[in-house]
């Protein structure tokens, strides 16, 4: 299991760079948070990790030609270190915040990939579908980055299996990975899981704080359905918190369940968390 680090999506850029320089991780991941920095623009500033990923960039606000152009630009600037994680996000954000119709997200994602992937490979795409009409070829040259999607439900996992390199998930426990996600993905597919982690003497207090801070998760149908599949009452149930022994044991459970890449989202001092996490490889 490879160990990654979730970069902060807001705040001063100097703080971002300090976190990005954390030693010993295999990868660093940025996401598109509300009001936050653009992840694809930031990644070229990150030194160190062999892999730089987005987890995730929403598809609806970006035409696949634009996404492909940005991704290949970042791939060239980072020396081929990009892994492009994309997904449809949530209606609450896409329609509620941005005013974009959130129509058939699974079908939209499949067609999006049918346009995006050949563009990344340098092919001339002629496509006329339900969501996109494209007649275009990119003239920039860079190795096509691996593409992952935020696949949580059965249809999205099928799309990940058929077209992408795997899934990027959050709000999961090891048993859901082993019994639900892995069986629906093909051999060699990546399971990239973001997990909130805290080394603390007050794990209940940490979970209570997460429950308050992340209350919106319960209002997002895709996440709520995933939590229900795992028999979880809310996002706080997915937090790994306790002393170093507890944390290490829980992270190893993710490895044994089939997680290929664990992204640590730190709730306490990140340096010590990453030292412990490396023992869970």
From TrEMBL:
<keyword id="KW-0560">Oxidoreductase</keyword>
<dbReference type="InterPro" id="IPR019910">
    <property type="entry name" value="Lucif-like_OxRdtase_MSMEG_4879"/>
</dbReference>
<dbReference type="InterPro" id="IPR050564">
    <property type="entry name" value="F420-G6PD/mer"/>
</dbReference>
<dbReference type="Pfam" id="PF00296">
    <property type="entry name" value="Bac_luciferase"/>
</dbReference>
<dbReference type="InterPro" id="IPR011251">
    <property type="entry name" value="Luciferase-like_dom"/>
</dbReference>
<feature type="domain" description="Luciferase-like">
    <location>
        <begin position="19"/>
        <end position="237"/>
    </location>
</feature>
<dbReference type="GO" id="GO:0016705">
    <property type="term" value="F:oxidoreductase activity, acting on paired donors, with incorporation or reduction of molecular oxygen"/>
</dbReference>
<protein>
    <submittedName>
        <fullName>F420-dependent oxidoreductase-like protein</fullName>
    </submittedName>
</protein>
<dbReference type="InterPro" id="IPR036661">
    <property type="entry name" value="Luciferase-like_sf"/>
</dbReference>
């Amino acid at each position: 299991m490879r160990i990654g680090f979730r970069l902060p999506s807001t705040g001063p850029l100097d703080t971002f760079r300090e976190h990005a320089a954390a030693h010993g991780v295999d990868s660093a991941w940025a996401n598109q948070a509300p009001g936050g920095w653009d992840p694809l623009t930031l990644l070229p500033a990150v030194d160190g990790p062999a892999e730089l990923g987005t987890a995730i960039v929403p598809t609806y606000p970006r035409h696949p030609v634009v996404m492909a152009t940005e991704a290949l630009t970042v791939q060239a600037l980072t020396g081929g270190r990009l892994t492009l994680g994309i997904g449809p996000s949530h209606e609450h954000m896409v329609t509620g915040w941005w005013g974009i119709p959130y129509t058939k997200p699974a079908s939209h994602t499949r067609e999006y990939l049918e346009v995006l992937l050949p563009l990344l490979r340098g092919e001339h795409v002629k496509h006329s579908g339900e969501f996109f009409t494209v007649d275009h070829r990119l003239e920039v040259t860079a190795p096509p980055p691996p593409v992952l999607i935020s696949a949580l439900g059965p249809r999205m996992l099928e799309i990940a299996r058929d077209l992408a390199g795997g899934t990027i998930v959050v709000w999961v426990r090891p048993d859901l990975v082993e019994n639900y996600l892995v069986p629906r993905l093909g051999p060699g597919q990546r399971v990239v899981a973001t997990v909130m982690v805290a080394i603390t003497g007050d794990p209940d207090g940490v979970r209570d704080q997460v429950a308050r801070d992340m209350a919106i998760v319960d209002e997002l149908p895709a996440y709520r359905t995933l939590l229900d599949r795992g028999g979880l009452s809310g996002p706080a149930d997915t937090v790994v918190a306790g002393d170093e022994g507890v944390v290490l044991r829980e992270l190893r459970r993710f490895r044994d369940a089939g997680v290929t890449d664990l992204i640590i989202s730190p709730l306490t001092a990140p340096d010590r968390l990453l030292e412990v996490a490396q023992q869970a490889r």
